Amino acid sequence: MNRANQGQVGQHEGAQAPNPLSERVQLAQIVARLAARRKLASVRVVAREVGISKSALDGLVTAYNEGRPMPQPHPKNWEKLKAWYLAQKQNEPDATDSPVDSALLALHFVADFPEAEQRAAARDSIDLWKEFYERHGRPVPAWLVRLSRALEMEVEPGE
After folding, report:
1. Which of 30, 64, 137, 144 lies in the 20 to 30 Å Cα band around 73?
2. Through-space distance between the first and last CA atoms of the chain, rounded to whole angstroms
3. Could you give the count of Cα atoms lying within 13 Å of 113 in the half-sphere of its Cβ?
4. What CA dihedral angle connects 32, 47, 93 and 28, to 10 degrees?
């Protein structure tokens, strides 16, 4: 069963939206795109595009299509999945309309930082972008506001 709103749970009226910085939420959105791509090409072709094994790809797409919990990909596969997804999105208009896409992009910009510093670096970059828009008298884009709120809701380790 293909559930069109998987990864978007809580998006309906009155419910709190899922945290776009959550890897679980990000994975659901990435796998939804994989599943759509898989309908157009073989597992082998899509796996080659992403750079992961066809069994890893098949496990994710099958879980998505059957409405089962997503298996957590190996860290190297997770990086490849994010890179593939962002590459797919970069040519689309309004690529940052989705809070999850915004979060993936912000974390991609700070991926060279040590993992323990990435959230703080993402916060700093979001703050700089907000200041940039405000200094130029421009309204802060909705995607930036959503991402800023998501980062504010996260608690730093040790706080």
Report:
1. 144
2. 42
3. 16
4. 20
